[in-house]
Amino acid sequence: MKETISALLGEQVTKEFYSAYLYLAIANWFEENDLGGFGGWYLKQAEEEQEHAMKIVEYLHDNGQSVQLGALEAPRPEIGCVRDAVAAALAHEKYITASIENIYAAAVAENDYRTQVFLQWFITEQGEEEKNAEEMLTKVTRYGEHPMGIYNLDKEAAGR
Ligand code: FEO
Fold this sequence. Notes:
The protein is mostly helical. 80% of the residues lie in helices and 0% in strands.
């Protein structure tokens, strides 16, 4: 594997752990605001992000690469209301999608076919995550003004 690809994948490991950390911060905000349904949903997202990071770590190991772990920044999302929290999650997923696509483009440029195949799972997963986040944002925007609207959306998030 080319060093550029290995380095990009290493950076992605840190980004995925940061995603987990950000989702934990968002989950904390919901828990502190007594919206445990949303809180549980974002805790689940935090767990999934750690799995994504470990998938990449394993891939690097399987290909004889060393993994340079980066420092994790403290997430400080500016959340003043439910909509801010959900919007922060969507914006972050878009950032992660762009990051994955950037590695894919590098893998194409380097004729690294194995990494292209490996990244396809992440490309599909990002589509799914963006869809979920968009859907949540649409509903919160439409129905979130009303206290019962948020109450019902919180119940819905608990069942997801
Ligand atoms: Fe693993 Fe949602 O990015």
